[in-house]
Amino acid sequence: MASPDVPPRWTHLYKVLTKSGPFSDEDWVPGPETITSLESSKILVIGAGGLGCEILKNLALSGFKDIHVIDMDTIDISNLNRQFLFRQADIGKPKAEVAAAFVERRVKGVKITPFVGKIQDKDEDYYMQFKIIVCGLDSIEARRWINSTLVGMVDFEDPESLKPLIDGGTEGFKGQARVILPSLSSCIECQLDMHAPRPAVPLCTIATIPRQPQHCIEWAHQIAWQEQRKDDSFDSDDLEHIGWVYSAALERAKQFQIPGITFQMTQGVVKNIIPAIASTNAVIAAATTSEALKIATSCNPYLENYMMYAGEEGVYTYTFEAEKKPDCPVCGNLARKLTVDPNMTLEVFIETLGERPEAQLKKPSMRTEEKTLYQRFPPQLEEQTRHNLKLKLKELIEDGQEIAVSDPAYTIDFRFRLSFQ
Amino acid sequence: MKMTFPNPDDILNFTLTIEPDEGMYKGGAFHFSFVVNQNFPHDPPKVKCTQKIYHPNIDLEGNVCLNILREDWKPVLNLNAVIVGMQFLFLEPNASDPLNKEAADDLRLNRDAFKRNVRTSMGGGSVRGVPYERVMR
Q1: Residue A203 to residue B63, Cβ atoms within 8 A
Q2: Which of A141-150, A268-277, A405-414 bottoms out in mean pLDDT, i.e. has the lowest?
Q3: How many CA atoms lie within 13 A of A150 on its CB side?
């Protein structure tokens, strides 16, 4: 039961956490224990932008008390319409720090630890300290990185090593929220082919018959720049470069009598800016944070595992369970341990792979993350790597290093962690 | 067809050489640089012709107009699909999707003249005042 000294801010939250509901798990024990577990859950928010601001605010208002946030960006004037933790005076300051300070000021008792930098700057030890990770990112690359890092961290003997990943994403009026239990459920890499790549205009349209102002901008950016300023590498943050593309596009648009090019549009096309809509961010952030609350407290079942939201024509949402891909390069086959003699040559090792019961690969090719050890195809690569066959394993790899092995008989790569005898 | 890897440890950057054994471009050796970025297969590979050649679907800067390299790329496609598509461009140059408009006009209006231009350009000659690189095998 909620005691009478519950601060008014939390009375509603505590009602949910101190009573069983029709959907709560039979084994769940409501009450102070649950509340303590929520307050002590260390949670990481990746991204302090449009989604990140909402997520931080929501988590703080949902009772999380130990929140970390990581973002490499600084605040730009164009963020202020929706990234409500930032003010005009904050322009140029790091998003993570300003957002953390703002929420700490507004919600008493919450501690928010910012880190200004890239997610890649941090290692497994850093990510291991959290109970849950929530992503409000704008790039697929960063999602893939954190996903594969979290999958790689899973140690089946230590349940604490499994970090639920809650991923939100928006694009205009569309959005998505998903819950990923690394190695147990479908991961970001499994779902990669669900994302349609950005629609692109055929190069020939751009080169010959532009129909829209955007085609002229693409022409200036991709064709005129290459012809006339080949030696300058294009920088989309350099205003002089954008200005050049803008005037080249204007010129071309005049030839084809296409009106409507503006500097801002040029910037949008060149930088691939998708209009961000504050309300979509709010919807998706709400979905991800209520999942975080449910996972941290077990008070209700969580999302399994993908919710899509389409708001561009009325509203349509659909929730389904994305399946794990058996051949997912990240979570489909975790590295198996293989004990080898470091003085064995690569050639002999390859032969043994055909005989070892745990491998049975007849025509393997292999590489480490950085190095191609031996590749049978294409022939030129075979020739270039053939000399490695005579080298000893210890000359090629380190003790405990992981190798990826492919074989024409299988469509997937096998991963082995080689430990020296 | 041949692939060369300037650095065998970096299998994301390589050169593809296409040597058509039939069609108008028979006898040539055409080099393309392939750059596969970290976002592959979400992003298509970036392909450029490293020679200056006379082809309706390849401009003088080496840009290639092949639908699956841009607007029709899907993450289920692979390098094989791209390579087959590139070979096809040399068998059947496509005048309706031009990047080199003059070459496309030649192909559409006078196929025989186009063929002659292809031979001239492949030998290192000029077509309509534009000098081309010698690309014979």
Answers
A1: yes
A2: A405-414
A3: 34
What pTM was estimated for this model as a whole? 0.71
- In tens, the pLDDT along A312-338 reads 999 999 999 999 988 787 888 667 788
**Cβ A197–B43 below 8 Å, yes or no?**
yes
Find the helix or strand (DSSP H, E) in which A318 lies. Answer: strand A316-320
Indicate the residue of A140, A201, A378 with minimum beta-carbon distance to B42.
A140
Q: Which of A207, A375, A378 sits opposite B99 (nearest CB)?
A: A207
Measured CA to CA, the distance from residue B120 to residue B11 in angstroms comes to: 35
Contacts of A222 in chain B (CB under 8 A): 63
Ordered structural domains, chain A, with CATH: 8-196+276-320 (3.40.50.720), 203-270 (1.10.10.520), 336-420 (3.10.290.20)
Q: Which residues of chain B neighbour A193 with C-beta distances below 8 Å?
A: 41, 74-76
Which has the closest alpha carbon to A375: A348, A398, A402, A406? A406
Share of chain A above pLDDT 70, in %: 96
B2-131 classified as CATH 3.10.110.10 = yes
Distances (CA, A) of A77 to A83, A90, A359: 10, 9, 56
Q: What is the mean pLDDT of residues A96-106?
A: 96
Q: Which residues contact A340 (CB under 8 A, 6 or more apart)?
A: A349, A393, A418, A419, A420, A421
Q: Could B97 and A201 be called an inter-chain contact, meaning their C-beta atoms sit closer than 8 Å?
A: no
Residues 6+ positions from A121 with CB-CB distance below 8 Å: none
Residue ranges of the domains in chain B? 2-131
Question: Does B108 contact chain A (CB < 8 Å)?
Answer: no
Picking from A192, A199, A208, the nearest residue to B42 by CB comes out as A192
- State whether B75 and A197 contact (CB < 8 Å): yes
Taking an 8 Å cut-off on Cβ atoms, the answer to whether B5 and A384 are in contact is yes
Cα(first)–Cα(last) distance of chain A, in Å? 59
